[in-house]
Write a structure and sequence with these properties.
By secondary structure, this protein is an all-alpha fold. 62% of the residues lie in helices and 3% in strands. Among the domains are: 55 residues; 154 residues, no CATH class. The protein has ten helices and three strands; from the N terminus they run ααααβββαααααα. A three-stranded antiparallel beta sheet has the order 1-2-3, with helices on one face.
C-alpha cells in the first residue's frame, strides 16, 4: 500500500523519486515545499482536499501575522506621536510666551472682576431704590374691601389689579371709584407699571453681574490651576473677552481705562506685546509661539458668542466674596 506523501507526489507530479510501495520517502516532500511557498491556489479544484485545507490554514496564519504587525506599527506610531506632543507641551509650559500670556490674562481677569464688582455695587443700590419706589406705589394703591390693590389709569377709564390684569366687574369698579374720590394721590396704573419695570430691570442687572462675577471666579481658578494647553489658553482669552464685552457700558469704559494704565511703559506690569522682549531670558527661551498661534486661529474661527443668561443665578459661592451681603 502506498503511503499518503507518495500518493500526493504521484498526483502532483512533484519530486524526483519514483513512487513505489517500498520506496523510502523524505520527511519534507517537494509538494510540501511548494505548499509552503504558496505555489498552489486554494480554489484550484484539481488539488487534493488535504492540500487545500493546509493552504487555507497557511493563508489564515499569514493574515493574522500581518494584522498583528500592522497593529504593532500603529501602537509604535501612536507612542511616538504622544511623546512628541508631551515634548511640545513641556516646551510650551517652559516658554516665555506662555508665562507672559498667562500673566496678561490674569491681569485682564483681575481688572474685569474689579469693574464688575463696582458695577454690581451700583446695580444693587439701584435695585434697593427701585424696590423702595415700588413699595411706595403699592402703599398708595387703592385697596378694595377684599384686600386687593387696584390702580386706575390716568384718565380713570380703566382699572387694573396688582397682577396687571384689567378689572371689569361693575361692583368692584364702583367700589374703586368711591375709594378714589377719598384718595386723590392714589398711584396710577401707568406709574405702577413703570416702577415695576424699573425694579425688574434693576433686578436683571444684579443677576447678570452676579453671574458675571461667578464666571470670572471660575476663569481665575482655571488659570491659577496652571498647565494650560495653547487651546485652553486661547479659549480662556475668548471667554474673558466675551465677559468684558457683556459688561454695562460704564463698566467696560472703566475696564479699558484700567488696561490702558496697566500697559503704560512705566507701569509695574506691561502687556505681553512689550514685556521685556530684550531680556536674556526671552532671547534664550524656547519659542512655542507657533503652538499658541495655531490654537488662537482655530478658536477664533470656531468661536460663537455665548447666549445671554439673563436672570441666571450663581449657585457657587466664592470663599471670600459674598457680593450681596458685602455691600
Amino acid at each position: 500500500m502506498l503511503k499518503l506523501p507518495e500518493i500526493w507526489k504521484m498526483v502532483s507530479g512533484h519530486g524526483a523519486q519514483a513512487a513505489s510501495g517500498t520506496a523510502t520517502l523524505s520527511l519534507l516532500t517537494d509538494a510540501d515545499l511548494a505548499l509552503d511557498n504558496g505555489e498552489f491556489n486554494a480554489d484550484d479544484p484539481d488539488i487534493p482536499d488535504f492540500v487545500r485545507d493546509r493552504l487555507k490554514e497557511k493563508q489564515h496564519e499569514k493574515q493574522i501575522a500581518a494584522e498583528v504587525d500592522h497593529r504593532q506599527r500603529e501602537i509604535a506610531e501612536a507612542r511616538k506621536a504622544e511623546g512628541d506632543n508631551d515634548r511640545h507641551f513641556r516646551e510650551w509650559l517652559a516658554s516665555e510666551q506662555y508665562r507672559r500670556a498667562v500673566q496678561e490674562l490674569s491681569a485682564d481677569i483681575g481688572d474685569a472682576r474689579a469693574v464688575a464688582r463696582e458695577a454690581y455695587g451700583r446695580a444693587f443700590k439701584r435695585e434697593q431704590a427701585a424696590e423702595e419706589s415700588l413699595e411706595d406705589s403699592r402703599r398708595r394703591a387703592i385697596v378694595l374691601s377684599d384686600g386687593r390693590r387696584v390702580y386706575f389709569t390716568k384718565d380713570g377709564s380703566q382699572l387694573y389689579s396688582e397682577e396687571r390684569g384689567e378689572v371689569t366687574d361693575a361692583a368692584l369698579l364702583g367700589e374703586a371709584q368711591r375709594l378714589r374720590r377719598g384718595q386723590p394721590d392714589a398711584t396710577t396704573y401707568e406709574e405702577y407699571v413703570r416702577r415695576c419695570q424699573d425694579h425688574d430691570e434693576a433686578r436683571r442687572q444684579v443677576d447678570e453681574l452676579q453671574t458675571t462675577l461667578g464666571k470670572l471666579d471660575e476663569l481665575d481658578n482655571r488659570i491659577k490651576g496652571g498647565k494650560l494647553t495653547p487651546e485652553d489658553l486661547a479659549q480662556a482669552q475668548l471667554e474673558t473677552k466675551a465677559i468684558v464685552d457683556g459688561l454695562p457700558q460704564d463698566a467696560r469704559e472703566a475696564y479699558e481705562q484700567r488696561k490702558s494704565v496697566r500697559e503704560q511703559p512705566d507701569a509695574e506690569y506691561r502687556s505681553a506685546a512689550t514685556l521685556y522682549t530684550d531680556a536674556a531670558s526671552f532671547r534664550t527661551a524656547v519659542d512655542a509661539s507657533g503652538h499658541f498661534d495655531d490654537a488662537v486661529t482655530a478658536r477664533t474661527v470656531q468661536a460663537q458668542p455665548a447666549p445671554s443668561q439673563a436672570g441666571a443665578k450663581v449657585t457657587t459661592k466664592n470663599k471670600d466674596d459674598d457680593y450681596r451681603q458685602g455691600l
